[in-house]
Amino acid sequence: MADPNEQQKQDLHKEEPFEEEPFQEDLYEEDLYEDDDSEEDLYEEDLYEEDLYEEDDSEEESIPFEYSATVTPGAAEMTELLSRGSIEILGLMPWSSNGTYLVQVTRGEDYAPAIYKPERGERPLWDFPGALWKREVATYELSRSLGFGSVPTTVARVSAPMGRGSLQAFVPALFSEHYFTLRDRSELAEQLKTLCALDLIANSADRKGGHCLIDEHNQIWAIDNGLSFHEEAKLRTVIWDFAGEPLPNRSAEAMQHLLETGLGAELVELLTPAEQQATLRRTQQVLAEGHFPFDRTGRSYPWPLV
What we know:
The chain is an alpha+beta fold. The chain has a domain at 21-49 and 129-153 and 172-289. It has 9 helices and 7 strands, in the order αααβββαββααββααα. It has helices at residues 4-9, 39-47, 77-84, 132-146, 179-182, 189-202, 249-261, 265-270, 273-289, and strands at 86-92, 101-107, 110-118, 154-157, 165-169, 212-214, 220-222. Strands 1-2-3-5-4 form a 5-stranded antiparallel beta sheet, with helices on both faces. It has a two-stranded antiparallel sheet with strand order 6-7. The longest helix is centred in the last third of the chain and has 17 residues, at 273-289. The chain is globular, with a radius of gyration of 19 Å.
């Protein structure tokens, strides 16, 4: 079986000329600190109407299959299992915009369910380059290098049932919960701020409320990270509640360390040179401002919200 790391190194992006794009500086405009009754505020209030995210008692709240695993999503052994284990497709995940599969990964006596996103299952997007699976892996690698732990273990697999793609540890979450049910819980604020910081650096273009999971240990996990790392400013997220608040010291220190040490070999292999430099520029901008930005337009939200 081919070593996925070696295979991936053979598929590095070629250097391409690019023009530097400024980070979304308008997110940090000073006039956003002032209170006003503009239409933008009204628009934002509409987005938070309760009926948009109220709980539906008709929905299944438990895991939609019998979850069983010998390795948990955050365990160190999960990387080895996902990287080298055999993959058995269990079924197609419903309501996914791209081909997304629930699989069972087995290596020796260890096994765990995972989410497999093959490149061939991706729908072409007019405003985003292909290979979204690489961006899934890149978001995990960024979270790992920052020490955030916000993303379930995600690896690249070349040898897989439907060809190369990403393989992410399945999180046995409380699926009735999402960002809008979690944001008012004070004990989760630091985790949500950490995720917000991660999305700013990764330029997340699709952080819906339903992409924020919580497990039985109150650990928040960010999933569906494929729309990220675009070299142009495309931030779209539901996490704007911390606008104007200072960055947590831990996040700021991690960003500074990233700038001093660089992105690391794993991220360099997954991103183009333009995307790498844009990631560093975003990190510099967020760190220089020292606080979470505002949404000036009221349009930097994904749809649907959940």
